[in-house]
Target: ATPase
Amino acid sequence: MARTCAAAAFFLISWTAAFAGETPAAPHAYLYIGWPNNGEVVAAGKPFRVWFGLRDMGVAPKDVKLPNTGHHHLLIDTPIPPADKEIPSDRNHLHFGAGETETMIELPPGKHTLQLLMGDDKHIPHNPPIVSKKITITVK
Model:
């Protein structure tokens, strides 16, 4: 059993590395949503602030290639995109290529998920991808 689990873990790690971007991730980078908190209820009909937290890594605008840096992408109601491709730019994948660390968004009433993903100078996830926990909020 232990051998099977070890083999499965090795396969998963190898597969993930094979389908990740080329920019190495900072070794101890930690990405998180500082606000809103998981389970938060926000008012409908007006924008609310989302702020991004990042430790052990720097933020740099798109097209600026420096070691251990990247820029934020906010994923709204969507899974993490493929790690070896450019992060899409649409209403579910918001890019912060100027190096922003917060934003104001407005969402329709209901439950929504938010998650952050760091992208390199070309909007491609790092290797391994640097992602925050997915949180769920309710707009009422």
Q: What stands out?
A: The first helix runs from residue 2 to 18. Residues 20 and 84 are 4 Å apart (CA to CA). The longest strand covers residues 110-119.
